[in-house]
Amino acid sequence: MTTDTLSLTLSALADPTRRAMLVRLREGQATVGQLAEPFDLSMPAISKHLKVLERAGLIERSVKAQTRPCTLRPEPLREAADWIDRYRDLWEGRLDRLDAYLQEIQAEPANETQSRTPKGDSE
């Protein structure tokens, strides 16, 4: 079983149902029933999603009488965001270079562009 928290977090976030559950938990604590309400899924399927979120440390479940309310734990999200941010400069630099190249080739006169076209392609 994976113990790398970043891998667990990214794996948990890969599913749209789990992401929607986290969005709901941003509003505050919710019961399993409240989290399940918008989905056309069985309770065992909902429980599996919650176990993935809990194993990743993204939620915490407590016991209050007969209910098990869930609470969002944002710390693993911060770790994932920090890891992704390390690559932001790289992505932005590459996109800036692509944009400059596209502007350069669009600004070239038509005859220069045609001279770069391989023979036989212009016919």
Account of the protein in words:
With 123 residues, the protein is mainly alpha-helical. The chain folds into two domains: 5-74, Arc Repressor Mutant, subunit A; 79-108. Helix content is 61%, strand content 5%. It contains seven helices and two strands, in the order ααααββααα. The chain has helices at 5-13, 16-26, 32-36, 43-55, 75-85, 88-107, 110-115, and strands spanning 59-61, 70-72. The chain has a two-stranded antiparallel sheet with strand order 1-2. β1 (59-61) and β2 form a beta hairpin. The longest helix is centred in the C-terminal third of the chain and has 20 residues, at 88-107. The relative contact order is 0.12. The model has no long low-confidence stretch (mean pLDDT 88).
What is the topological layout?
Blueprint: H1 5-13, H2 16-26, H3 32-36, H4 43-55, E1 59-61, E2 70-72, H5 75-85, H6 88-107, H7 110-115
Antiparallel strand pairs: 1-2
Assembly form of the protein? single chain
Biggest sheet character: 2 strands, antiparallel
CATH class of the largest domain: Mainly Alpha
Cross-sheet strand order for the largest sheet? 1-2
The shape is: elongated
Distance between the termini: 59 Å
Average pLDDT rating: 88
Order of helices and strands: HHHHEEHHH
Helix content: 55-70%
CATH architecture of the largest domain: Orthogonal Bundle
Strand residues, percent: under 5%
For the CA atoms, what is the radius of gyration? 24 Å
Uncertain runs are none
